[in-house]
Amino acid sequence: MLSILVALIPGIIALVWQFGPGVLVQIIIALIAGLLAEALVLIVRKRNPLPSLLDGSAAVTAVLLAVSLPPLVPWWATVFGVSFAIVFGKQLYGGLGYNPFNPAMVGYAVLLISFPRQMTAWLPPLEMASTTLSFSDCVSIIFHPHNALSFDGLTQATPLDLLKTQLGMETHLDEIQSARVFGGLSGKGWQWVNMGYMLGGLWLLRRGKIDWRIPLSFLSGLYLIAMFFFLFDSSLYPSPLFHWFSGATMLGAFFIATDPVTAATTPRGRLIYGALIGLLVYVIRSWGGYPDGLAFAVLLMNFAAPTIDHYTRPRVYGHGS
Amino acid sequence: MFKLWPFKGGLRLPSHKQASSLAPLQTMPLPKQLIYPLIQRNGSISQSLVKAGERVLKGQVLNSTEEWSIPPIHAASSGRVVGIQSFPLIHPSGMDGPCNVIEVDGLDESVEFNGFADYRTVEPQVLLDMIHQAGIVGLGGAAFPTAIKLDPPKPHRIDTLVLNGAECEPYITCDDSLLRHFSEEVLSGANILMHILGVNDCLLAVEDEMQESIAALETAQSNGDFRRIKIVPVPTLYPTGGERQLIQLLTGREVPAGGIPAEIGVVCHNVATAVAVHQAITDGEPLLSRIVTVTGQGVRNSQNLLARIGTPIAELIEVCGGYTDSVQRLIMGGPMMGVALPSDAMPVTKATNCILVAGQDEVIVDKQAMPCIRCGDCASVCPVELLPQQLYWHVRAEQLERAMEYHLPDCIECGCCDVVCPSHIPLAQHFRSAKTKVTRKEQEKAKADHARLRYDARNTRKLNEQMEKAEATKRKRELLTKMAENHKSG
Amino acid sequence: MLAVLVLSVVFASFGLILGFASIRFKTDGDPLVDKIDALLPQIQCGQCQYPGCRPYALAIAKGEADIYQCPPGGDVCVKALADLLGLEAKALHSDLGQEPPKRVAVIDEEKCIGCTLCILACPVDAILGAPKFMHTVIASECTGCDLCLPPCPVDCISMEPVNETLAEGYWTEPAAGLH
What we know:
The structure holds three protein chains of three kinds. By secondary structure, chain A is mostly helical. Chain A folds into two domains: 1-156, no CATH class; 158-312, no CATH class. Chain A has helices at 2-19, 22-44, 49-54, 57-68, 75-87, 103-114, 116-119, 135-143, 159-168, 173-177, 190-206, 213-232, 240-244, 249-256, 267-287, 294-311; strands spanning 182-183, 186-187. Chain B folds into two domains: 18-319, NADH-ubiquinone oxidoreductase 51kDa subunit (Rossmann fold, 3-Layer(aba) Sandwich), CATH 3.40.50; 369-490, Fumarate Reductase Iron-sulfur Protein, Chain B, domain 2 (Orthogonal Bundle), CATH 1.10.1060. Chain B has helices spanning 18-22, 124-133, 146-149, 174-181, 183-197, 211-223, 243-251, 271-283, 313-319, 377-381, 388-396, 400-405, 416-420, 427-489; strands spanning 26-27, 33-37, 55-56, 79-88, 96-104, 160-165, 201-207, 229-234, 266-270, 289-295, 303-308, 327-332, 339-341, 354-359. A six-stranded mixed β-sheet of chain B has the order 1-11-10-14-12-13, with helices on both faces. In chain B, strands 2-5-4-3 form a four-stranded antiparallel β-sheet, with no helix packed on it. In chain B, strand 12 and strand 13 (339-341) form a beta hairpin. Chain B is globular. By secondary structure, chain C is mainly alpha-helical. Helix content of chain C is 33%, strand content 8%. Chain C is built from five helices and four strands. Chain C has helices spanning 2-24, 31-39, 53-62, 74-85, 117-121, and strands at 103-107, 127-128, 136-137, 157-161.
């Protein structure tokens, strides 16, 4: 679990570099809320909270959720999301190992549905920001959201947001992508964050901490379907690489979908599981109601994981072909 | 290069073999006592043929020997029978059982042994009986009667003999030692086995790390007529020494679930068994001794010992310089599949390949197990491609039928899943216990079905008796009425 | 009017199908009784207040008997029955005694007078003997039901616990606390 937190560091550095230190404040809030929630539930369940707190799973959930949130989301949203993730997403099912759904994504989905306005208010990346926020600015905005009014142009649509709304208005893709927020592989800022996560993820793979099948099949699935539509009509559908380095792709591929508790467990099952998440992410991004679809794609596939496992049992030695 | 067919999963484990393999093979001095459990593989108790006070000679049969499934046990030296005493058995149950105890007189007088100068002139059936009479069982650890294995059911055509010299559990080096010191006997035994089975191919698997053994075998091979035997170095990967895994590795064939290797044309024997067969056929000498590895941090000198079967383990430890201060646990077998021994009073049996005197760092501490996080590491190391975590799930919920659907009986209990489990769940132990439960359930079911049959049969019988009785009464009444009528009319 | 006609035809045809099915797919005996009987331990001890396992199974199937009346079957049996019948598993009926250990009847052959009363009582014909001759129990057939104890006029039958042998399984579960 500790290595997962370590592997998140490059992504977090990129987040801080591009979107200011708000994410650090969120991580601190989430950690405190997550560990408190975990300890409280365990005490209510009359269990010793120490082993669970030390296994790091609550911390991982908290940090994963914190880095998925817009950096300046109000503190109560973070606290609510993390507590919901730990209590309803994990402990009510019996704690670590028994939860069918990825707790961080449960928290994220609940927040997104409950507070859509706050949850889509992302900051502009470094290159476009009109103001540079200091750590204390972030703290003050997170704890007193109306302080944000004193800053100008603080929030901005993400590239995925923009894409969705503009395509809805039948704007040509080239025109949309000429907007300042796009650039490089995907969007300014976002590509660096995704690269940071990818770096951490590759390190995890190298260390053997995560299974290679899910990231590989997820990214290939996303790439293939994106490539198909891109070749079909490149004026409507952005390139596969745009999808790879947008939104939460890399975070999802290496850190969220690979959560062993909620993923499929058989070798073939994991390939199917990852690929289907990739497809779902694309489907939700392209035709769904939300700009990014990782949380819903993962949760939907969590539902399907036991069935996938059931139909992909490996052939046991001596049982014919 | 011989083509290998690697099996899935498996683990590279630290070997810990240096300590015992570097020391020379030592022959144990005559023990003071010899102890022979009367319990058999299938749990039945065999009849003792000797009485307390009787003098027995080396090579004399101690128990009754009617069935091939119960090979005889021979006294390994001459002495006086003390009688039948209760000793703890080498068995995970830790139960006590009756044992024949012999006080050794030191004369080592022997019955006369007669072998065949040329086995090729002898019918295989005669040789098989000789192997049974010599009390030979599989010396790899499972102790399955060798004669039965060499006489597979008729429909199966055997084409390959596999000799297993790949002891892949860490610490154990008894086969390595045997291959180095008895290489010629191994090859000669292989020839005899091939003659009995009527096959022309023999694959002798040796771990690739056992270079000296391979060299010794190659030298021996060039000195005699052993052309049909192929020496195959195999990777040192646990559990390559498992019969099914080795057969898969060498031939690419899989033993059908619940079946025996003969079904796919293979018979597999341990190299030590081949040596025992050689001695039984050419010298007429029954199985009296075997090589035992004594090793671990808990014993002063790790080494291989040529010990008489029946020697108390305590005497082996003594010859190895006794216990060190760090001794923690006695294990028979290797660290992965061995059985913990409650004391060192019990004897070396035909199945004793290794006495691991585990020290502080070697005992697998029972760590507090954490919940399963379904990481799937267990599935990736399982050599039979089970899904241990799903199995574990069902076993814990006592859903034995579901566990059977996930092929619980195919688990070879190698313990690879235990080693890699990040939550320290003792998976193999759970599976063994579940298998036990399944067996018990099946036994109970069989007993209940039998009782039901007898109950039904009794009810039918009683019903028939009643009906017959009613019939008889009716007939009697009719007869009486008739008689009365006759009387009236008459 | 038409609706009534159509409905009548539909329902009549349903009736025909059902009637046909009940003849075509008729099963001999009551499969439920067999299923229940298969779960009972077949000790035939009568502790359930029925004269044997099958009568008890019949009574359960009819709904006359409860599922927690079989002490030899123990909680395992209650659970299995509850699973089969979709009922809630309960603890064993306390009046009927606890789950006994496995036992086998042994006749003290010195004392036996050869009265054959036990032979008549044995539900599985596990006692061998003739009038005025010593009787003996065939241990492998004995279910340990205790029914031969009361009729014996000289109290020469005792119930001995069955020792576990190595032939049975032997691996135990890992210690508690280890998952």
